[in-house]
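User: I'm new to structure prediction. If I give you an amino acid sequence, what do you actually give back? Let's try with this one:
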Amino acid sequence: MKYKILPVTNFVQNCTIFWCEKTNEGVVIDPGGESANILQTIKELNVKIKYVLLTHGHIDHIGSAKIVADALGVEILGSQQSDEFLYNDGLLQQANMFYFPLENPTAFQPNKWLNDGDKVNFGEETLEVLLVPGHTPGHIAFYNKNAKILQCGDVLFKGSIGRTDFPGGNFETLINSINSKLFPLGDDVLVIPGHGEITTIADEKQFNPFLR
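Assistant: Good question. You get back a string of structure tokens that encode the predicted 3D arrangement of the chain. For your 212 residues, that looks like this:
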């Protein structure tokens, strides 16, 4: 499996494209903004996107999801339904709160909510869905076992963890999600966070001050 990280918006959110090297079929995760840039990158990579995937319902991760999905003619999958309150009117409230330039002012919901243990297939690749609440109630992560690559949204960062002071956040729940769902994946797993540099499970176990 191959991947491309595309930081977008003033929030520098890591929109991520995963694709199957054999078939060029792929997915785009968390298209939070700059839809024209995302679509142009997909075109340059010659990736046939099968789904738009969302880790959670915060605006910097979903702000351009509907525009990108409609442009590509694909469905939006995720997050878990506990995040439903962040979509619809919650999307517009987030835009006003954070002065976020919302490309799509129309509220939306995913075509399908994802749950723990679900599989997302594209080409010859599979992403396993992990429910990892704490930053938001319905936050999920996407894990490719063969490549040992994890896209974990805003749960775990290089040297830090996701904020828990937003509506629905909970510090103890977040720490439990990391310890029970992410760390058991293995020390050699590459972690693509929602913001910032890539890291590994081993480095976060050893150096992350929130988790040592």
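You can read the tokens as a compact description of the fold. Here is one thing that stands out. The mean pLDDT is 94.
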